[in-house]
TrEMBL record:
Keywords per UniProt: DNA-binding, Transcription, Transcription regulation
Protein name as catalogued: Transcriptional regulator, RpiR family
GO biological process, one term: carbohydrate derivative metabolic process
Annotated SIS domain residues: 125-265
Keyword Transcription regulation: yes
């Protein structure tokens, strides 16, 4: 198996149904055929659109389809993915080397997320938050930390919300939501059972639902009115999920920025009021 084949296989869980069709077509074709094909021809053969192809190559880490084809043409089983290797921390790395790798990996993850996110979905999510009567946020494990940050940001902007990490409390919360309420589920994999189940229950009770995940074709998206897709390129099983948390917080900042801009006067007033409320907590 060539390096690019292995690379695409490792990214397969992050692809949507349409993107998987593209990946599978490429994996099942001769390299020479793909390097000579146009983006229009590939879209036709895969039964998708040129926009899907463009999104696929960006998610695979390339700027354009031409860049992807060039990399494929040069793939002769040598390690053409030095960039991936360059951000992996190894035993006996120096402190300076670790600093460089963490910085590079963080920037790469943010750039990858920026290239694939749909800002219109974020805008729709912001409008859901603005109109919600009650906002509940679900996340477990590392996602619970991000849920707390989102709770803090929304509350400071004038949208009181509650982050729940206990699975039982998530289930109870979801069962008490109604039409006009909002449930937000955060899951890097999109397959965290407690979070997925809670979002499902919330939706069944009439609540609007939002999910924040790296996997657009995962179970949580089935119960989401809008999906906020991000991408870190990190395997949390092999790492501490640092880059996954980073891009989740990046998404929270985008959402908060939209709300601050849209509800500027409200956010400004609430920000001042909440700042005054805690000013005497400082020495």
């Amino acid at each position: 198996m060539s390096k690019i084949q292995a690379f695409l296989n490792s990214r397969m869980p992050t692809f949507t149904k349409s993107e998987k069709k593209v990946a599978e077509y490429i994996l099942n074709s001769k390299k020479e055929d793909i390097t000579r094909i146009t983006i229009t021809e590939l879209a036709t053969k895969c039964g998708t659109s040129e926009a899907t192809i463009a999104r696929f190559v960006k998610k695979a880490g390339f700027e354009t389809f031409q860049d992807f084809k060039l990399t494929l043409a040069l793939d002769n089983n040598e390690d053409i993915f030095e960039e991936e290797k360059d951000i992996t921390i190894f035993k006996n790395d120096s402190p300076q080397e670790i600093l460089r790798k963490v910085k590079l990996g963080s920037l790469k993850s943010i750039e990858s997320t920026t290239s694939i996110l749909d800002i219109n979905n974020f805008l729709q999510a912001a409008n859901f938050i603005r109109s919600a009567k009650r906002i509940e946020i679900y996340g477990v494990g590392s996602s619970s930390a991000v849920a707390k940050i989102l709770q803090y940001k929304l509350t400071r902007l004038g949208f009181p919300s509650y982050a729940l990490e206990d699975p039982h409390m998530q289930a109870i919360s979801a069962a008490t939501l109604n039409f006009g309420d909002l449930a937000i589920g955060i899951s890097q994999s999109g397959s965290t059972k407690d979070t997925v189940d809670s979002l499902n229950v919330a939706k069944k009770h009439g609540a609007t639902t939002i999910s924040l995940t790296e996997h657009a074709n995962s179970p949580i998206t089935k119960y989401s009115d809008v999906v906020l897709e991000i991408f870190s390129g990190e395997n949390p099983v092999k790492t501490s999920a640092g880059r996954s948390i980073l891009v989740q917080i990046f998404a929270v900042e985008i959402l908060s920025g939209l709300l601050y801009s849209i509800e500027y006067e409200k956010a400004l007033t609430t920000g001042k009021d909440t700042a005054r409320a805690v000013v005497n907590k400082l020495y």
